[in-house]
Amino acid sequence: MSNNIKLNKDVFNKNSYTKVIDTKFKELGVKTVEEQIQEQPSVQEFFNMYNELFFQINELGPTNSHEFLVKTSGEYINFSAENDIILLLQAEIATLREQLLEAQKQYLINKE
Prior knowledge:
Layout: H1 14-20, H2 33-39, H3 43-53, H4 66-76, H5 79-111
């Protein structure tokens, strides 16, 4: 009842070992930084994807929404400062309109 098992052993010398055996650990799924960077979409590819997904993105929400994109992009370009300037200019326009209206009233009174 004895069974003989034949074992084979492959042996490589130092020079041929690196040619036959992959020593970069690609089998584990670890990617180099360069490989990760190459997989990132370009700016053009990003906007193409954004346009394709536009109506699938939630309008509001703390993340993954149009609201989130507006807030984070607005913070990045300091949009609130520009918005403050717009509000100041609108207030100045309102004041000038009031002054113009008052001047027109005075003109009509003096004309009579």
